Amino acid sequence: MSTEHRFPAAGAPPGPTITVALTGASGMPYGLRLIQALVTAGARVYLLYSQAAQIVARQELDLPLPARASEAAAWMTERYGAAPGQITGFGREEWFAPVASGSNPPDAMVVCPCTMGTLAAIAGGLSDNLIERAADVVIKEGRKLVLVPRETPYSTLHLENMLRLSRMGVVILPPNPAFYQHPTTIADLVDFVVARIMDQLRIPHAIGPRWGEQRPATPGRMDSQQPSPASLAAAAAGVSVAVSAVQASTATSVPDDL
Ligand SMILES: Cc1cc2nc3c(=O)[nH]c(=O)nc-3n(C[C@H](O)[C@H](O)[C@H](O)COP(=O)(O)O)c2cc1C
What we know:
Elements: E1 17-22, H1 28-40, E2 44-49, H2 51-61, H3 69-79, E3 87-89, E4 108-114, H4 116-123, H5 130-140, E5 144-149, H6 156-167, E6 171-172, H7 186-200, H8 219-224, H9 229-250
Parallel strand pairs: 1-2, 1-4, 2-3, 4-5, 5-6
Helix pairs in contact: 1-7, 4-6
Bound molecules: flavin mononucleotide.
């Protein structure tokens, strides 16, 4: 039996299938936290990532994403406590992957973080690698596509590409955390964005408070809740410790076949 058929367990209600593509924009913590949240919510995750995403993951998190996507999926399965087969990785030219065909589309796809290059390619329908093709399939099959584009400032070309995609029904969800919830850690900022993505996917979650369900902000309180340099340093240290564990578990020599 293939791993795809081992999740969900026989008789269990199937969770949604979500394709998550990591591309080489800054913001890798958003993508990884999203995968974790999807696993927790019982979704099946199809994992794709670009070569540039490997470079950014190493640069931002000291995370050596393996060249072989199946190995990254195995690592994430262990790290996030996923069921066997809940996360499946596909290489960037794996054209026999289910996401490559409209006959087997996922329920939704998220590109997070999304580069301006991949955004332009999707807007132009290039389908030159599996991420672009999977997005093209999701659009043509009328499924939800959420892009989390990261660049600043946006050029006119970036904005035109986003408008073109938005007119096709693609959700453009820039990673813009709000501060009205009094974030005190980097994880709070990441969670705000991931919660909004989960909302777009209509997947129930308990990530962070919701507006109207908490004490309203007051000007004085806002100042007293600013993250201190010490809390930011502690958050960074936490990331560093987690990343060390990742490095230990992914320090494998793998062929460059993505
Ligand atoms: C550390 C680092 C950060 C980058 N950040 C961004 C970014 O925020 N947005 C962006 O559009 N490109 C960014 N780039 C450039 C892209 O990685 C590059 O254009 C790449 O070709 C995109 O390929 P992909 O879309 O296949 O991932 C960054 C590159 C590096 C190395």
